[in-house]
Amino acid sequence: MIQIISCGVYVPALRVGSSEIAKALGAYAGAGIKKKALPEVDEDAFTMAVEAAKEALLGMKTLGGSGDGSLPSARAGGGAVEGEPGRSATVAGTAGTGTSLGPGDIDYVAFASTSFPYEEKSFAGALAECLGIPKTAFVGEFGSSTRAGTEALISAASALASGAFRLALVVVSDCPGGGPRNPVEQAAGAGAVAFVLQSGENEDRCIFSLEGSSTWSKESLGIRSRRTGFTEASDLGIARHSRDAFVGTCVGAVRALLEKERRVGRGESEEKACEAALSSVGSEFRGLVATQPDARLPLDLGRTLGFQDERVLPGIVASDMGDAGAASCLLGLLAYLESGSVKPGDLLLLVSYGSGAIADALRVRVGRGVDEISRQKPLRSLLDAGTDVDFVTYLRVRGWL
Amino acid sequence: MGAYISVPVWERTIAQRYGLKGQRCLGCGAVLFPPKVVCPECGGHSFEAASLSGRGRIYSFTVIAGGGAPPEFEWQANAVGSYVVGLVELEEGPRIIAQIVGVDPRAAMAAPLFEDSAFEDSGGSSGDKGKRSLIGLPVKAVIRKVYEQEGVIRYGYKFKVVSEV
Ligand SMILES: [Zn+2]
Predict the structure, then answer these.
(1) Residues A179 and A224 reside in one and the same domain
(2) Tens digit of pLDDT for each residue in A189-234?
(3) What is the pTM for the complete model shown?
(4) Do B51 and A86 touch (CB under 8 A)?
(5) Is A216 found in the same domain as A199?
């Protein structure tokens, strides 16, 4: 079972109200967005990633102690982390002896964003450097679309499931943007989320586990794209087409997930069985969390799949922080877990969308660690702690004045 | 091709800039940051690596406004007008100069320097931070963009005010 045993989150402190933008520009493109998070001039996807990842690693430290903190025994050769000065080292093959986990135990790092600071030059290694993760860890980046966050999560889960890796860190950090009049910019927020994953059976420390995923892709023009060498994302701006691309691709991934996991009855056509499964998805899953280019599209998807709005709303964060790109659905998942509306054992349907178009659907089982998350509310406390700035300050911070 | 950036220095300082890696003097035990060749406390020159926690308190600060910014920080001054630079006393002892992020420079200047500062604070005070002196407030290290030079973004530590633990 692939378990998420620790998480961290970061949201920049500044907020721009949609009313500020609407007042200045005469229009506002982000449906349902009340305010968006604005990174400071010296923040970017990399710096936000470091903040979220540090929190996740701190959370990991408080685990462990009474045998909980030990890793599943390492495969031959996948062994001990060499003790470098200042790094926590662990002894391989001694599962159950209560070694606590540290950054030195992480051997798989996946960093996802649509707004990496460089187009060529990977920052996954710099991220590991900042966190004290061994230089020998596998490090990789996922980008190209807002689906990158779940892409990173699925890759880490697969790596752990293969047995070749023991402890993974997934960091998804994004700050999309464009020019002042760009509709993508108007909705663009920022934020980062980080998860520590392991393959294990101890349920006490598990915040949530991943029980399966499916992907569905097709060539499509919707939603936004950014060509090589361009700094601004562009969008055809046809709301109807964007909605259809989003909902259609996401439904494709959900159907694929159900198809994978539901046995087709005797004499029943596969297609028919799948339609039946799709019609019951709203009763199988407690709630739906989806990528949030705005705060409305997840509700549209929910209605298509048979989720009443109140089972989608706990996972909507775009209303309070804008479009956090590749991080939005995972921040949404964290918000759902914090909301107090799920209990251990519940299933959540996590769906990501990226232009291409590609969607991932993931079956998320809520773990016992949810009680601690819903008590601490790390994301909600950051969302509530924002400082509102006016339109002129917003332009200055973006470097446009 | 030459470069204004000294590549050896750049690479040698990565551990201190990204991970606050300092050293402990084997002669007197003093923790030094950034790493030095000779211990200023005892003159010793044998050290072991020491990681700093990044936690500390603001010992002193100043506000750099517009024209006062060194050339490499002009972009920042141009964007936000002014910024706060602090002398931070780290938990392990060293005092280092770095920017303080997330505070309003104007409020920092307007607040009384010492009155109601956190040094006299018994903790748990939830007073309006805008009116409190920055001096004595607890901070933690964060990674931020420091400046860009020759197409290279230089990241490094700055400090952010945190609530009392
Ligand atoms: Zn000494």
Answers:
(1) no
(2) 999 999 999 999 888 889 999 999 999 999 988 788 888 888 888 8
(3) 0.90
(4) yes
(5) no
